[in-house]
């Protein structure tokens, strides 16, 4: 065996020499750092205890806000009962990308992150009650007053409609149907055809059998547009017996591309019309482009939407009651109310007590189960939520269900980061608090049954207790004529939102919100602001909710909203129903 190596004598000897002084000092420094290292955990523990204290305090304060003894202000759908308490605790909405990503890895949602930001909002609202609101909260930028309605002006002769008859059976809810009606009016003028009063397809989502005459005034529609096109209530008797499918006169959405150019109708549809004297469009959802299109046809489309479609007296009368009660019986005639309410607006008696007048904010919470299910986003309900929404998709969106089986779809985290998820009530209330609406703000909530019911609405109802809906403002007898007619109920929401002093949408892609925004833009005279969040940018702010302080959150959200309120002319290809500020629909005046 080889011998063991001898100790390094030269180094041991050197340790006692004067040259070893620097080495000794280095060792002493090392020992000093080691002793300090023993104290470092104590400092970390103290810091952790301080953070935990504030963490617990925030949780406690927000839990007080959600005291279940508080009186609910409206009736909403209650989320289905869960099998156990653990599953029930997952019922809250997500507000950050970390929560979505964490759940995708099998972790539960980090509810404390959302609770922290909501607690900060509660503090901010309490402190802000004595301070004035931001100056621009209830106002549009000054240059919005430069635009005024003028699509009612005509400079052509009426079309005789001699090339045949156009029929449509529109799908979707009241909003999709309204767009289809105005597109059909425009196509009828383009093809010199006579329009038959549109029909509405029954939908297993909307469950509403309403037809055109149940929502809009047929005679007013026909007479108002008689200088543009010819409209009849029924197809002539000699054409009613035709088998339209057999002769090739049925046109489905698969036959006409989405947002098709007018030239396609001239090339493809006009020959069928001339040959068979009738064409029947089935579905007809968004089947006409916004650009390029002749300016006079674009103006006709605006004229149809903003002037020709008036609600039936039953809807006008109940809508007037809603607006009067929301405004504290304040009577104020305007072009908007005249269009929405007609003669009913004139009959409304003015309030004798000015102190009764009040401003209100309308919020469209697009968080019904159909929207939640279709979005493919995750909202914190765990496997119960996933199973429930998948079951809904199988019934109402079978094509989407099949697509999930064969195609790799974007993750919930990606969809949220791209702003593709509807804002949950918890997220919407943070936006409202950040931009400066006081706790005492009177808020009208539009929408159908909110997915998750009162549990989902807890954040808004606790931070903003003055919440109302059409169900709480109207008596059972006033609501009775509209029960089981979702489109007619949506018309009441449309009136309340369009007439509001301020309107906030939570899903800019919603056709309801887009139509309300367009109405307010067209008739508002620069006095009806709309809050339209950029959900992608809002998601990038909410992702920091574990660390962001309220002042920074408030500043960033306000900047985001101010940028979306800027006044500009309609961009190319943008919907005129959503953005009518263009020379085809409105006139611009220089101050």
UniProtKB/TrEMBL annotation:
Single GO biological process annotation from the record: fucose metabolic process
GO cellular component terms, A-Z: membrane
Start-end of Low complexity biased regions: 11-24
Keywords recorded for this protein, A-Z: Carbohydrate metabolism, Fucose metabolism, Glycoprotein, Glycosyltransferase, Membrane, Transferase, Transmembrane, Transmembrane helix
Comp. bias regions, Basic residues: 25-38
Domain of life of the organism encoding this protein: Eukaryota
Primary location: membrane
Annotated spans, Disordered: 1-38
Transmembrane feature ranges: 6-23, 44-62
GO terms of molecular function: glycosyltransferase activity
Localisation per UniProt entry: Membrane
Membrane topology annotation: Single-pass membrane protein
Compositional bias segments (type: Pro residues): 1-10
Similarity comment text for this entry: Belongs to the glycosyltransferase GT106 family.
Name of the protein this chain belongs to: O-fucosyltransferase family protein
């Amino acid at each position: 065996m080889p011998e063991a190596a001898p100790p390094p004598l030269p180094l041991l000897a050197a340790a006692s020499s004067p040259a070893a002084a620097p080495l000794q000092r280095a060792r002493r420094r090392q020992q000093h750092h080691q002793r300090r290292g023993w104290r470092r955990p104590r400092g970390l523990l103290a810091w952790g205890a301080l953070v935990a204290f504030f963490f617990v305090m925030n949780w406690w304060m927000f839990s007080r806000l959600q005291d279940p003894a508080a009186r609910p202000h409206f009736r909403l759908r209650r989320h289905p009962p869960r099998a156990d308490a653990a599953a029930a605790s997952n019922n809250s909405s997500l507000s950050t990308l970390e929560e979505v990503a964490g759940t995708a890895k099998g972790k539960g949602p980090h509810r404390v992150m959302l609770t922290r930001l909501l607690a900060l909002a509660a503090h901010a609202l309490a402190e802000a009650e004595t301070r004035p609101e931001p100056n621009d909260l209830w106002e549009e930028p000054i240059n919005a007053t430069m635009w005024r309605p003028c699509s009612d002006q005509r400079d052509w002769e009426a079309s005789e409609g001699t090339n045949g008859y156009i029929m449509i059976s529109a799908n979707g809810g009241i909003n999709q149907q309204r767009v289809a009606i105005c597109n059909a009016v425009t196509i009828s003028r383009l093809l010199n055809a006579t329009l038959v009063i549109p029909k509405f397809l029954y939908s297993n989502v909307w469950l509403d059998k309403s037809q055109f005459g149940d929502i809009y005034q047929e005679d007013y529609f026909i007479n108002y547009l008689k200088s543009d096109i010819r409209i009849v209530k029924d197809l002539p008797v000699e054409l009613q017996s035709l088998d339209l499918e057999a002769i090739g006169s049925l046109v489905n959405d698969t036959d006409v591309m989405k947002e098709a150019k007018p030239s396609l109708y001239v090339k493809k549809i006009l020959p069928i019309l001339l040959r068979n004297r009738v064409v029947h469009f089935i579905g007809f959802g968004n089947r006409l482009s916004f650009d390029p299109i002749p300016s006079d046809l674009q103006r006709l489309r605006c004229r149809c939407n903003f002037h020709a479609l008036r609600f039936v007296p039953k809807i006008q009368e109940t809508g007037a009651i809603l607006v009067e009660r929301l405004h504290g019986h304040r009577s104020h005639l305007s072009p908007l109310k005249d269009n929405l309410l007609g003669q009913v607006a004139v009959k409304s008696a003015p309030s004798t007590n000015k102190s009764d007048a009040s401003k209100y904010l309308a919020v469209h919470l697009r968080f019904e189960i159909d929207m939640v299910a279709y979005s493919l986003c995750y909202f914190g309900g765990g496997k119960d939520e996933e199973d429930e929404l998948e079951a809904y998709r199988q019934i109402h969106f079978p094509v989407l269900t099949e697509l999930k089986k064969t195609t790799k779809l974007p993750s919930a985290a990606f969809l949220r980061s791209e702003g593709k998820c509807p804002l949950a009530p918890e997220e919407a209330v943070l936006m409202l608090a950040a931009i400066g609406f006081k706790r005492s703000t009177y808020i009208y909530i539009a929408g159908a049954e909110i997915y998750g019911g009162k549990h989902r609405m807890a954040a808004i109802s606790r931070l903003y207790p003055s919440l109302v809906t059409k169900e709480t403002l109207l008596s059972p007898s006033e609501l009775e004529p509209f029960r089981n007619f979702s489109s007619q109920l949506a018309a009441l929401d449309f009136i309340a939102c369009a007439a509001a002093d301020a309107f906030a949408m939570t899903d800019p892609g919603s056709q309801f919100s887009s139509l309300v925004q367009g109405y307010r833009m067209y008739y508002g005279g620069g006095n009806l602001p709309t809050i339209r969040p950029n959900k992608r940018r809002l998601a990038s702010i909410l992702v920091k909710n574990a660390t962001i302080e309220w002042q920074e959150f408030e500043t960033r959200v306000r900047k985001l909203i101010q940028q979306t309120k800027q006044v500009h002319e309609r961009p190319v290809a943008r919907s005129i129903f959503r953005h009518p500020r263009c020379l085809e629909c409105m006139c611009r005046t220089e101050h």
